[in-house]
Amino acid sequence: MEVYSFTGTACAPTLTPVGCAIGNGASLMPRILVAGVGTNGNVYLVRIWSQVSVFGTFSICAYENFPPPNNEPCGAIALPVSTGCVFPPPFTTENATQTLVPGLPGCVGAAPVDDVWFTAVVPASGQLQIDTDNGVLTDATIAVYTGTCGSLTLVAGKLPISRKW
Asked: What is the pLDDT of residues 139-162, one digit of tens each?
């Protein structure tokens, strides 16, 4: 799939490439985010084709991209802390963007592209374990910070297990 911005007229169009996305296998259709490249009211042309010589049908939609409410540290969602792990309904990184806080440390070799934020209060025991359950996100990384939205410090934690979904 390719996206072009369109200016000019139907008889003399000017097409400027905006982006390109390639599907990853038969069940993973491409998607593309057209953000920060246009102005309200711009017209875009979307070109779609098959990567093989087989014809087929598909569905397509366009929608306004709103990041999740916990896209930035100050919008972090509070996680309940209990005596056992009970997973709430799944969260998503859908439409999330990278947090741009100067000097924000993260995990070595794991630069975030689309991060979301949560809070958890350490209980009286002083022990807090954070766990994730598998889902569609297969390459997650967790970093824990202390501080306020504008002044965060990475917390060194013990990693009891390391797993890749």
From this structure: 778 888 888 877 888 887 655 444
Whole-angstrom Cα distance, residue 50 to residue 36? 28
Place of tokens 């979301």: 116
141/42 Cα distance (integer angstroms): 36
pTM over 0.70: no
**Domain annotation covers residue 12:** yes
Q: Which of 31, 16, 25, 93 has its CA nearest to residue 61?
A: 31
163 in the same domain as 122: yes
Buried/exposed 121-159: b ≥16 CB within 10 Å, e otherwise: eeeeeeeeeeeeeeeeeeeeeeeebeeeeeebeeeeeee
**Domain interval for residue 86:** 68-165
Q: How far apart are CA 47 and CA 44, in angstroms?
A: 10
86 and 164 in a single domain? The answer is yes
Do 85 and 159 reside in the same domain of the chain? yes
Q: Which residues contact 14 (CB under 8 A, 6 or more apart)?
A: 6, 7, 8
Q: How many domains does the chain have?
A: 2
